[in-house]
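hey
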């Protein structure tokens, strides 16, 4: 069976998975989030690694809160 590479996995993905479906409007995981970001390209803000992520991450990323 071939390998399937997925990622990057963000804290947002883990939180959205934990709550079962995501929290509207932004905290969604995986393909649902990718689809949303393609329709709304300015909704994501790059994190410290340059990966687009949700504005709500201010609640779980201290450096974002400080900025």
């Amino acid at each position: 069976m071939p390998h399937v590479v997925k990622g990057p996995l963000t804290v947002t993905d883990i939180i959205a998975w934990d709550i079962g479906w995501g929290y509207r409007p932004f905290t969604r995981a995986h393909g649902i989030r990718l689809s949303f970001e393609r329709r709304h390209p300015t909704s994501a803000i790059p994190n410290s690694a340059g990966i687009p992520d949700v504005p709500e991450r201010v609640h779980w990323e201290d450096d974002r809160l400080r900025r």
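The mean pLDDT is 78. Residues 11-66 form one domain.
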